[in-house]
Amino acid sequence: MKVNEKKLRVVGYLVMTGMFFIFFMLEMFFWWKDENILLKTATLTVLYTLAIWEPTRFIILQLRKKWQGIAWVKRRVVLAAAILLPYAFLVGFGRVYLEDYTNMWGIRVAHISVYSNIIGITMLFVFLQVAVYESIYFFSEWDKTKTEAEELKRLNFQIQFDSLKVQVQPHFLFNSLNTLIGLMEMDTYRARLFTEELAYIYRYFLQANEQELISLEEELRFVKAYFFLLKTRYAEGLHLQVMGEENMHLYLVPPLSLQLLLENAVKHNIVTQSKPLYIDIKFEHDHQQMTVSNNLQRKKNDIRSGKGLVHMRKKLRLLGLPDIVINESKNLFMVTVPFIKSNEYESSDH
């Protein structure tokens, strides 16, 4: 449900003006003897509702800029009340005072009952405006969140499918099984480890779409298992260094993020003992980001679709996280991916 703010501004003001005129000013035509009654009541209605509507709208939108989303509804409403109720008191008081000071109606109107009635009406109109704006915003955000959740689920399945598709391609299975057969002939212990890690990897692939985010600890455990398979195959042609592994359980990242970057590095670069590939994973907890880098030695006629990174970017955007950053030089390729503290994610709209 997308709302046109300009339309709401105009229509809302006209509705409030009409309500005030009908319920609080129209009766004056029947008992007030004044040839200028229409001009006076119309002018008062327009200026009074304008003094309520525009400042209230301004405060609501400013609070919304600072505290966006459904999770901050309570804070926005409390702060709006703290700011706007005193303002409503001043508007109501000022209106009665000016009417009396200018002798607008030809009699004294500065009585306690008049002050209390007008101030109460002003506060009521402010309350109604805040309620309308917040209600429309709530349902708009709820609808947006629902749509994003569906898109995120679709992306999860797509990323899982793309990753799994790569792993079940004949050459991958052939290489894995061929490596396993070789290990069984030479080292039964490593063969058993290889089998366990291979099973763990496929299980992780199949379960990856069940969560929007997963702990860095689990993701790194999976990547190390994935690297174990690659290392068994490439031996000294492939090396991995991980830096900054402390407190990994406190942070979350989209599933398969690290695996995708590791897979891309191996897929697009030469990996041999004579030209080894060095991959570094660095976690920067202060900046809530991780960087995966590798020495650049591209294969000839390398074809890159970039589909995996496109999906990752979409997923990060839907989760409200910063975009990835790609840096490439003559000899080095780096991708920086953000992650989030688990307590920050739990307190957000998700």
Describe the structure.
This protein has 350 residues and is α+β, with helices and mostly antiparallel strands. The chain folds into two domains: 5-144, no CATH class; 168-346, Heat Shock Protein 90, CATH 3.30.565.10. Helix content is 64%, strand content 11%. It contains eleven helices and eight strands. The strands form two sheets. Strands 2-4-5-7-6 form a five-stranded mixed sheet, covered by helices on one side. The protein has a three-stranded antiparallel sheet with strand order 1-3-8. Helix 5 (112-167) packs antiparallel against helix 10 (307-318) and helix 8 (216-234) runs parallel beside helix 9 (257-268). The protein starts with a helix and ends with a helix.
Structural class from helices and strands? Answer: alpha+beta
* Strand arrangement across the biggest beta sheet: 2-4-5-7-6
Count the domains.
2
Tell me what the CATH architecture of the largest domain is: 2-Layer Sandwich
Name of the top-level CATH class of the largest domain: Alpha Beta
Q: Average pLDDT, to the nearest integer?
A: 81
The low-confidence parts are: 164-170
* Count of helix runs: 11
**What's the gyration radius in Å?**
32 Å
Straight-line distance between termini: 19 Å
| CATH-defined topology of the largest domain | Heat Shock Protein 90
Major sheet: 5 strands, mixed
Number of strands: 8
Strand content: 5-15%
What string, H for helix and E for strand, traces the elements in order? Answer: HHHHHHHEHEEHEEHEEEH
CATH superfamily of the largest domain: Histidine kinase-like ATPase, C-terminal domain
The outline comes out as rod-shaped
